Amino acid sequence: MGHVEIKKFIALLALANMRGEKPTELLIQSLVRARFCSLMSVELELPENPPTSFLLGLFSMIDALLDQPMEIVVEKLPVGQELRDALCRKNIDSTMGLQMRACFAFEEADWDQIDYIALQFELSGERLYTLYYEAMHWAQNMNSTIS
């Protein structure tokens, strides 16, 4: 296991442990988002990624898990400003902002938004669907492993 994979694994375990009495669905959705953002970053050949994009998705529901506003939670996270902005839904047209918007679009079945984001990323909508379904499958497997 490489250095990056170890960091991702530790973040995943920390998130799973902080779930407490929260519904398992919050963790599963965080995992879907993490994997989806990671897959998008690989597809887009983004620098410093996929680890940063993975963390974006993984931490995207940390406010709900901790019952605190996202703006307060991100102050405590040792992450860059673009990641903080994306988590707080600021600068939504940045690459990370678009990744978060893609997650929300799939969750809300907003097909027009998915097409828009695919166009911004210069990907086919079909490719984004494939990545999202792959992320859902991966998250289910991960949940089985850590449950």
Write the layout of secondary structure elements.
Blueprint: H1 3-17, H2 24-44, H3 51-59, H4 62-66, H5 70-75, H6 81-87, H7 95-107, H8 111-121, H9 125-146
Helix pairs in contact: 1-3, 2-3, 2-7, 2-9, 3-6, 6-7, 7-8
What does this structure look like?
With 147 residues, this protein is an all-alpha fold. The chain is 74% helix and 0% strand. The longest helix is centred in the last third of the chain and has 22 residues, at 125-146. The chain is globular.
What's a concise summary of this model?
This protein has nine helices and no strands.
Bin the strand percentage.
Answer: under 5%
Helix content: over 70%
Helix and strand succession?
A: HHHHHHHHH
How many helical stretches? 9
Mean pLDDT: 85
**Tell me about the biggest sheet?**
none
Q: How far do the termini sit from each other?
A: 21 Å
Would you count the extended β strands for me? 0
Regions with little confidence, pLDDT below 50 for 5+ residues = none
- Quaternary organisation of the protein chains: single chain
Measured on Cα atoms, how large is the radius of gyration? 14 Å
Shape: globular
Q: Helices and strands: which structural class?
A: mainly alpha
